From TrEMBL:
<feature type="binding site">
    <location>
        <position position="274"/>
    </location>
    <ligand>
        <name>L-citrulline</name>
    </ligand>
</feature>
<feature type="binding site">
    <location>
        <position position="119"/>
    </location>
    <ligand>
        <name>ATP</name>
    </ligand>
</feature>
<dbReference type="InterPro" id="IPR014729">
    <property type="entry name" value="Rossmann-like_a/b/a_fold"/>
</dbReference>
<keyword id="KW-0028">Amino-acid biosynthesis</keyword>
<feature type="binding site">
    <location>
        <position position="38"/>
    </location>
    <ligand>
        <name>ATP</name>
    </ligand>
</feature>
<protein>
    <recommendedName>
        <fullName>Argininosuccinate synthase</fullName>
        <ecNumber>6.3.4.5</ecNumber>
    </recommendedName>
</protein>
<comment type="similarity">
    <text>Belongs to the argininosuccinate synthase family. Type 1 subfamily.</text>
</comment>
<dbReference type="GO" id="GO:0006526">
    <property type="term" value="P:L-arginine biosynthetic process"/>
</dbReference>
<feature type="binding site">
    <location>
        <position position="125"/>
    </location>
    <ligand>
        <name>L-citrulline</name>
    </ligand>
</feature>
<feature type="domain" description="Arginosuccinate synthase-like N-terminal">
    <location>
        <begin position="6"/>
        <end position="167"/>
    </location>
</feature>
<feature type="binding site">
    <location>
        <position position="177"/>
    </location>
    <ligand>
        <name>L-citrulline</name>
    </ligand>
</feature>
<dbReference type="InterPro" id="IPR048267">
    <property type="entry name" value="Arginosuc_syn_N"/>
</dbReference>
<feature type="binding site">
    <location>
        <position position="129"/>
    </location>
    <ligand>
        <name>L-citrulline</name>
    </ligand>
</feature>
<feature type="binding site">
    <location>
        <position position="121"/>
    </location>
    <ligand>
        <name>L-aspartate</name>
    </ligand>
</feature>
<feature type="domain" description="Arginosuccinate synthase C-terminal">
    <location>
        <begin position="176"/>
        <end position="394"/>
    </location>
</feature>
<dbReference type="InterPro" id="IPR024074">
    <property type="entry name" value="AS_cat/multimer_dom_body"/>
</dbReference>
<dbReference type="InterPro" id="IPR023434">
    <property type="entry name" value="Arginosuc_synth_type_1_subfam"/>
</dbReference>
Length: 401
């Protein structure tokens, strides 16, 4: 089945992507498979992953550190958009997919490949995110998805790999399906497939249970420049270190857990557990700073676009025309979103307790009820009359009919 001669395969080192290598070569006639593993801060040692790809039959095994780009070019724009899918999930896993797709397309161009491939199955969201992102970046590039088509069970997949020298997993496999990167962890499957079952503590890694968190609160002052987080407690950090530090501090206080029923793009409801301490704290802090620095109409209008933005990212449309148009709008709104937000971390909660900005639209002389009050109270009567006029006319019409 000669679909392509040279293929760049998104590679994780797991069973499916490892088996993809001999499958592409022996079943689909691919002459050369180049694997690409993206280091997005998943915490794994990637040298064994690189070597496993070669042992599994890859002609070349690429490992690319894309952590800085991941945070700077994908996570930070999502924070500016206050992106929460279904108002809860901060897209920690979804944001990695358009970046990996870009790395695949770039590698295909660099190595003269005529196709790229991934190990996604036919039930998840990631297949859509990869396929659509790749098509947007290079519509002439073939996309191969062996695991979506081979129809093998888990046991059959392992047996197929053993036939070509890929060892079966030696340790007892966890019942959970876990994805991790710098922005957090997603956990699904196993006992979690019953939505009535409470997650065991064993599923969590980045966040402590509330009963094991400090008994005193911790305060963090997060500095933003044009909607981008740049500092913690007046110390500037590069993007990766800032997220790492905030994950650590928030996780110690049990902040960042999500347990939700999620509507997948393919029409399936899925029970998902997420840990995303830094991302959730940064979105909450950023949204609060916007409340101080954006006018009411811009802030209110932006809320609706944030929902659209989140849905676009979740649905794999990062590189779509509508997403680009929203990017331009959001960038315009962020020009004066500069300042500091004070966050209190305590017993599973991240609470905003203070905010300040040189661009603050909050005017104490107008807001105060004290002697310094400069608001013209007499103007209120005329304003209320005009504001309520349509309602008054409607009421009179209804009463007289």
């Amino acid at each position: 089945m000669g679909r392509a001669k040279k293929v760049v395969l998104a590679y994780s080192g797991g069973v499916d992507t490892s088996v993809c290598i001999p499958y592409l070569k022996h079943e689909w006639g691919v002459e050369e498979v180049i694997t690409l593993a993206a280091d997005l801060g998943q915490g794994d040692e990637l040298e064994p992953v690189r070597k496993k790809a070669l042992d599994s039959g890859a002609a070349q095994s690429l490992v690319i550190n894309a952590q800085d780009s991941f945070i700077r070019n994908y996570a930070f724009p999502a924070i500016q958009a206050n992106a929460l899918y279904e108002n809860r999930y901060p897209l920690s896993t979804a944001l990695a997919r358009p970046l990996i797709a870009k790395l695949l397309v770039d590698a295909a161009a660099d190595y003269g490949a005529d196709a790229v491939a991934h190990g996604c199955t036919g039930k998840g969201n990631d297949q859509v995110r990869f396929d659509v992102s790749i098509a947007a970046l290079n519509p002439d590039l073939k996309v191969l998805a062996p695991a979506r088509e081979w129809g093998m069970s888990r046991e059959e997949t392992i047996a197929y790999g053993e036939k070509y020298g890929i060892p079966s997993p030696v340790k007892k496999k966890s019942p959970y399906s876990i994805d991790r990167n710098l922005l957090g962890r997603s956990i699904e499957a196993g006992p979690l497939e019953d939505p009535w079952t409470e997650p065991l503590e064993e599923v969590y890694l980045l966040t402590r249970p509330v009963d094991n968190t400090p008994n005193s609160p911790e305060y963090l002052e997060i500095g933003f420049e044009q909607g981008i987080p740049v500092s913690i407690n007046d110390t500037r950090y590069d993007p990766v270190r800032l997220v790492e530090l905030l994950n650590e501090r928030a996780g110690i206080h049990g902040v960042g857990r999500i347990d939700m029923i999620e509507n997948r793009l393919v029409g399936i409801k899925s029970r998902e557990i997420y840990e995303a301490p830094a991302l959730l704290v940064l979105i909450a802090a950023h949204r609060d700073l916007e409340s101080l620095t954006l006018t009411a109409d811009v802030s209110q209008y932006k809320r609706g676009l944030e929902e659209t933005y989140s849905r676009l990212v979740y649905n794999g449309l990062w590189y779509s025309p509508l997403k680009q148009a929203l990017d331009a709008f959001i960038a315009q709104t962020q020009q004066r979103v500069t300042g500091t937000v004070r966050i209190k971390l305590f017993k599973g909660q991240a609470t905003t307790v203070g905010r300040k900005s040189d661009y603050s639209l909050y005017t104490p002389d107008l807001a105060t009820y004290g002697a310094e009050d400069q608001f013209d109270h007499k103007a209120a009567e005329g304003f209320i009359y005009v504001w309520g006029l349509p309602t008054r006319v409607w009421s009179q019409q209804v009463r007289n009919s």
